[in-house]
Amino acid sequence: MSDILIKGGTVVDGTGAPAYRADVRINQGTITEIGPDLKPDGERVHFADGCYVTPGFIESHTHFDATMWWQPDLDPLPGYGATTVILGNCGFTAAPLHPEKAAQLEMVKIFSFFEDIPEGPFLEHLPWDWRKWSEYKASMVAKVKVPANYAAFVGHIAIRLAVMGLDAWERAATAEEIRRMAELLDDALAAGALGLSDNLHDHDGQDRPIPTLVADDAEFEALFDVLQRYPAATYQVIIDTFMRKTGPASLERLERLTKGRGIRMQVAGAVPTLAFQKDILPTLQARVADMRAKGYDLWPGIAHVSPTSTLSLVKSLIFAQSNDYAWHEVVLAETHEEKARLLADPDWRARARESWDTKAWPHSPMNNPQDLHLIDSENGTGPVGVTLKDYADSRGLHRSDAMAEWILANGTRSTVHMSPFPKDEALTVDLMIDPRTVGNISDAGAHGQMLCGGGENILLLTKYVRDEKLMSLEQAVHVMTGKLANFFGLADRGEIKVGKRADIAVFNLEEIQRREMEKAFDVPDGKGGTTWRFTRKAAPMRLTLVNGEPTFDGRKYTGATPGTFLAPANDAHAAAVAAE
Q1: Which residue range(s) make up the domain with 566?
Q2: Per its UniProt record, what InterPro entries does this chain match (predicted)?
Q3: Fewest CB within 10 A of the end CB: N or C in the chain?
Q4: How many CB atoms lie within 10 A of CB 559?
Q5: To the nearest whole number, what is the mean pLDDT of the chain?
């Protein structure tokens, strides 16, 4: 454990309070003294002149549940000041598990499809030596060493599959199955899970509603009964404001099912910010306001980065989630030879054109070729740097045929990139500043060939604070630190205060940037080889500390793995449950 004195910096303490000049002393991983002109007492001195000293940043919505087992450096997070990651979101978790292998594999397939994570390393690198979530936690703590702290939800999808097996896709649960689900949730919460994560949003590659969309009210009520017994637990759920736009109906259902329960709810999509979502925005805003006025503890989840899509034929759910199952056939083709054969097949071409014209959502990439960019050629044939619309128009082709032709010419490992969806920035800022929202949401750890999340946090400091002056530095830091620590019940960190754990980021505001995407060929493919993911170079931080240990030294990841499992403030209740 390092003892460090950070001298000469400007402290932004994570509470939203004004910044101030001060030195910060750290002993044995804890902040022990804050004040002007502190004298060294044998510890290492880090000079922070011209820099801000803030709490380490909390990645509030990640999917490192699987990838942390084979990518334990969590690249590129240390270079972006991240010190805590929240796992297990959207109902996708690696535990609990059904005893039968087929049902276990189904959970892997679901996680792999929706988060674009290869199945091979998922099966190869995780030990699968658990059934209950408590056993999973014990295995994770013993075997995974990472440079950031981590806290985790237990997923409703996993719970449902663990009890019902493959029937979870097909029907409502019986009373006995619901009882067993409640037991599994209680096991997880007693072991330190943040709460229950859920999914009222997704359909799979065969257009099947995700298993949690099949659950009836009795199942939800039993699970909410368990959540009520854990006051610091959170219900995290994603509702559909993106595809079928069933979000308003889902939020109305949740209002009914949680009435009078006092359960804290984090709802991704509760207040959508993208331009194509404006048709449902007023309804959702009115319901959120009404629920809050009635006493519901409702926290909309907010992403400050507009979703972007990378259309890949190797691993991508974009086509299926755009309601385009013709192009999804190409993604599912097992070899690149088969992918190329489909792209050239006249019958498939006809079905693909019809799919884009009549089935794909109007706001999907398929129907916005002016926003699809041909920039990533496998073999360099090109042209690159043009839009799909320009390419199609220049050749007199339908946009689907044009993309097929370009990929055939450039190689089936080429990717097509979509511009960010237009977003209401004023609403985004208002939501981030709202005292009851969860910001800094991303999908870090997932969608590696789209690069969701990793390094996006820095835009709060560069775009929103430094460049466009849409919010103050104190507000932006609060969004990523103290506000989130308090929400998740992580009471011993998130602020620069004496007695708090020393999760700290030190940076010069003028030199940090969200760096450009670049490929890293380091993802195991489960066949003895590797595939690629997008990453980016460090912002960089001048220093990132996790529990007082440097994980980024201003130039590179240090190799340190001081991250620990964090439980919410349910510890006293969990101890009481264990003693019964």
Answers
A1: 1-55+479-579
A2: Amidohydro_3, Metal-dep_hydrolase_composite, Metal_Hydrolase, Metallo-dep_Hydrolases_sf
A3: C
A4: 10
A5: 93
Tokens at residue 104, please? 């276990």
- pLDDT tens for 344-372 read 999 999 999 999 999 999 999 999 999 99
Number of structural domains the chain divides into: 2
> Residue 543: CB partners within 8 Å, gap ≥ 6?
6, 46, 48, 504, 505, 506, 550, 552, 553, 554
3-state percent helix, strand, coil for the chain, nearest multiple of 5: 40, 20, 40
Instruction: Give 168-177 pLDDT, tens digit per residue.
Output: 999 999 999 9
User: Using CA atoms, how far apart are residues 50 and 509, in angstroms rounded to an integer?
Assistant: 9
Q: In 363-393, which positions are buried (b, 16+ CB within 10 angstroms) versus exposed (e)?
A: bbbbebbebbbbebbeeeeeeeeebbebbbe
CA gap 391, 333 in Å, rounded: 25
The CA distance from 67 to 6, in Å, is 33
Tokens 């440079």 -> residue: 147
Contact 60, 460 (CB under 8 A): no
Q: Are 145 and 563 in contact (CB under 8 A)?
A: yes
Examine residue 314 and state whether it is found in any structural domain, yes or no: yes
Orientation of helix 388-395 relative to helix 399-410, angle to 10°: 100
Instruction: Tell me the CA end-to-end span of the chain in Å, nearest whole number.
Output: 36
Domain end position, chosen among 418, 435, 456: 418
Q: Is 403 exposed, middle or buried (0-12, 13-18, 19+ CB in 10 A)?
A: buried
Whether residue 318 is found in the same domain as residue 414: yes
